[in-house]
């Protein structure tokens, strides 16, 4: 079983694969921490010690408010440089925020820490490994040519590395190691991805209606930059739609 992410900060030389820059996504991550009452850790920027176990108390357009530590030495260290790190977990993924203008304030009869909004936000899950579960309301089909014809299967999830298919046709049995050439994936109004794929896993499943079928996991071969862009645009679009509903 995969272990949950720790609340230790991560320091990387190249933040590009993890950087979150869209303001709507940053607000979503912070709101999840607030609404779910998630336990977070606060650190002095660039350091792993000392730290304070905390929660996010409130969010405004310009400020964040956190529970302070019971230890005055730890509080002093957190605000000493005016910057601190927030480390938390949202949807089982570690997130890390660099927060400026950290100061101690009085809040409802106790000490709290106030900061400005993030200057940098990292989601410690590389986007090229991020796998999007496709909502049932969004039908995405993959057309696979064979023997002069083709079969069309439902795509249940997708990433820049591959996808999963459901409802394998008895006319086209798939085995681990098979290569599927010239496949076409229709990503709603985003465009069509054309790619070769290799079957990596085949699992027998029974649907809620009792029908037995197979789920097939495939990896992409040499996905071009243009095709990668289409998939990333599709992932971003579905994620924005999901965030707007929450």
Automatic annotation (TrEMBL):
Residues 125-236 form the PilZ domain. GO terms for molecular function: cyclic-di-GMP binding. Keywords: Bacterial flagellum, c-di-GMP, Cell projection, Cilium, Flagellum, Nucleotide-binding. Its main location: other. It is found in: Bacterial flagellum basal body. The keyword Nucleotide-binding applies. One of its GO terms (biological process) is bacterial-type flagellum-dependent cell motility. Acts as a flagellar brake, regulating swimming and swarming in a bis-(3'-5') cyclic diguanylic acid (c-di-GMP)-dependent manner. Binds 1 c-di-GMP dimer per subunit. Increasing levels of c-di-GMP lead to decreased motility. Monomer. Interacts with the flagellar basal bodies. This is Flagellar brake protein YcgR.
């Amino acid at each position: 079983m995969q272990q949950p992410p720790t609340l230790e900060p991560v320091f990387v030389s190249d933040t590009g694969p993890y950087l979150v820059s869209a303001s709507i996504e940053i607000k979503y991550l912070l709101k999840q921490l607030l609404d779910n009452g998630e336990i977070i850790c606060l650190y002095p920027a660039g350091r792993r010690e000392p730290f304070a176990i905390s929660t996010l108390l409130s969010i405004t357009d310009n400020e964040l408010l956190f529970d302070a530590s019971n230890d005055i030495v730890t509080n002093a260290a957190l605000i000493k440089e005016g910057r601190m790190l927030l480390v938390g977990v949202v949807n089982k993924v570690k997130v890390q925020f660099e927060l400026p203008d950290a100061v101690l304030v009085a809040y409802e009869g106790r000490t709290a820490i106030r900061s400005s909004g993030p200057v940098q936000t990292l989601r410690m899950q590389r986007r090229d490994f991020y796998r999007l579960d496709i909502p049932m309301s969004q039908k995405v089909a993959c057309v696979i040519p064979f023997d002069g014809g083709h079969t069309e299967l439902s795509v249940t999830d997708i990433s820049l590395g591959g996808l999963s298919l459901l409802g394998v046709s008895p006319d086209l049995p798939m085995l681990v190691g098979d290569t599927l050439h010239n496949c076409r994936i229709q990503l709603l109004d985003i465009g069509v991805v054309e790619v070769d794929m290799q079957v990596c896993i085949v699992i027998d499943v029974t649907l809620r209606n009792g029908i037995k079928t197979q789920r097939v996991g495939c990896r992409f071969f040499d996905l071009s930059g243009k095709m990668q862009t289409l998939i990333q645009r599709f992932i971003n679009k579905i994620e924005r739609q999901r965030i707007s509903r929450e």
